[in-house]
Amino acid sequence: MIERKVAVITGASRGIGHAVALQLAREGFALAILARSSIKKVKDKIEEIKKTGVPVFYYSGDLSSAGDRDSFLAETYQEFGRLDLLVNNAGVAPKVRNDILETSEESFNFVLNINLKGTFFLTQAVAKIMLRDVKAFKEKDNLEYSPRIINISSLSSYASSTDRSEYCISKAGISMLTRLFADRLAEDGIYVYEIRPGIIYTDMTSVVKDKYDRLIEGGLTPIKRWGYPADIANAVSVLCSSRLSFSTGEVINVDGGFHLRRL
């Protein structure tokens, strides 16, 4: 078993996920990453993380596939022998934005299978491992084990976008998933949190930069700037520490104050 803590992160091949992985690596976590991209496509990103000096295990797989989830966790545990942190970051948007009256079942299934179903069952599997290891670690001296689960949702968990209804529904589901697992696992010392990003500048949002530049300047958010992946990574850093040991189920809005809903 590796001595350093191990973080499992989904969707860490780019954007927010990569920023989170890099931040955790700098803090000494070994990393196990599940993402859809082939290792060849993300080689530069992985090498950037490895330069911090931590072990990195990368698994190219589909979060919506039970077989891929099982294989990923089995190989991760074989590699490291422990799981201390799960960051559920992976998520997809609809391939095509359609009015809710035109949303197809194919698009609904594509988004929900990854964003919600895959996240739910990966969390369930990791939680079982953590529960088992909580008992095992208690029997060993001088070994700290304070597992955490952090879910990356979105302001879309409560803000309506009728041309991407499947995405909003998936993120609302992540909010309830957070509450449910926080309730179930708290007694065993496994704490669960949710981070709700706002308008974050990534390759996914770069195509609507002009639109959001205008909205932000017009007062959409009290803090008049874009958010960046590093803002989310900093929030993850706080939540996975031991400084919030009397909190679980908390929601941290990283959205420039959008959630204030001011008049």
UniProtKB/TrEMBL annotation:
Annotated signal sequence range: none
A Gene Ontology molecular function term of the record: quinone binding
Superkingdom, natural source: Bacteria
A biological-process GO annotation: fatty acid biosynthetic process
Record-linked InterPro entries: NAD(P)-bd_dom_sf (IPR036291), Sc_DH/Rdtase_CS (IPR020904), SDR_fam (IPR002347)
Pfam hit, one: adh_short_C2
Keyword annotations: Oxidoreductase
Family: Belongs to the short-chain dehydrogenases/reductases (SDR) family.
Protein name: 3-ketoacyl-ACP reductase
Lineage: Bacteria, Bacillati, Bacillota, Clostridia, Halanaerobiales
